[in-house]
């Protein structure tokens, strides 16, 4: 068929089809004009210097369409494109569930100390989650979101980035920040909203941010970070900064309009960005079967012209390899990449959620006991002789001690000064804010005994 089309195109050109000034390619009727000096987009193979002895209509069904909005062929049979006519996008992995390397050529061959850092970061995050979750249940903090089951997506992707790459998180990427060196003291201070919190107690718990580590402060509205990240990536491209942006979000957030706008802008503006989707099975209580009908999130990438891959999010090496290659090419080629990391949210969506209302205990236990990213990496370390039972016991005890020390220190600290309610928005305080600050001061002077003012810095 391709050979037939090529010969038909060549024969038409040799017969002088260009004499009609490209009108045969769908141009509107009107005065004839000389042929252009070069063929229009999509007309490769046609030469402007071809002989023009005759005028003859070419057979349209044998010619490639010249419409500027798509790349396709003509057909003469009505047939709608059906979803799921091809097998699903495969899931890239490096390790099996027992921690064994499936294909030695895909082994990243990371040094022992780096793999141990993977493991320590993942288990330390898990320990911090358990303590802060219980803290919320005891009424010590107002809110918390755990990362159970998704630790491999955090650490594998964070390790593949350069230190200066900009991170836009959603609200379940604490492990990315931890891997970059964010201290436990600041995690705790943010969740407690005390005087050591860089955000000065103004944000909900788990809304971390760190300018020094190039981690943009998390905000609550869903998917707003996606177009923001694209804008940052476009700026990096304009500056030739040799810098990538990574934007994390869940498969539920991918249903927001901001996601589609972000994908399209990134592709058309050719931005060095990695869209990292954590497909953990649920958007709060809504399972993926009720969220979309297509083949997950990775299937959307080609429709926007984005290079895409689906990886096993419970395999830290697979996540690392995919993110490293996406990062390299995003910077070198100035183009976006989409990674869909398949994983499972073992914990509740947040401390405001009871997942037992919409999923079974057996389902959760399977992922917790049979296919957990931490246990998979532990199996790998054991098989390499890089870790043992004694190291495990020692580290578990040490990591809990580190978290508890930071937890207890954060709980003892005072809350930020009340006057910080009015700062950091304007360079010079406007009259209406000054009026509010004065009113608060008068109120507390009169009724201060009814407030725990001794809990705040003066």
Write a structural description.
It catalyses: N(6)-[(R)-lipoyl]-L-lysyl-[protein] + 3-methyl-2-oxobutanoate + H(+) = N(6)-[(R)-S(8)-2-methylpropanoyldihydrolipoyl]-L-lysyl-[protein] + CO2. Its EC number is 1.2.4.4. Keywords: Metal-binding, Mitochondrion, Oxidoreductase, Potassium, Thiamine pyrophosphate, Transit peptide. Residues 119-417 form the Dehydrogenase E1 component domain. The chain is an alpha/beta fold and 458 residues long. It contains 13 helices and 8 strands. It has helices at 2-14, 112-137, 151-159, 174-179, 184-192, 225-238, 257-268, 301-304, 316-333, 361-369, 373-384, 389-412, 431-447, and strands at residues 166-168, 215-216, 245-250, 273-279, 282-283, 286-287, 307-312, 337-342. The radius of gyration is 29 Å and the shape is globular.
Biggest β-sheet, characterized?
6 strands, parallel
Query: Which strand order does the major sheet show?
Result: 2-1-3-4-8-7
CATH architecture of the largest domain: 3-Layer(aba) Sandwich
Please report the distance between the alpha carbons of the first and last residues.
Answer: 82 Å
CATH domain class of the largest domain: Alpha Beta
Note the quaternary state here. single chain
Q: Report Rg.
A: 29 Å
- Uncertain regions spanning at least 5 consecutive residues: 1-53
Give the total of beta strands.
8
Q: How many structural domains?
A: 2
H/E element sequence: HHHEHHEHEHEEEHEHEHHHH
Anisotropy-based shape:
globular
Q: Kindly estimate the percentage of residues that lie in beta strands according to DSSP.
A: 5-15%
CATH topology of the largest domain: Rossmann fold
Organism: Ornithorhynchus anatinus (Duckbill platypus)
Family: Belongs to the BCKDHA family.
Subcellular location: Mitochondrion matrix
Enzyme class: oxidoreductase
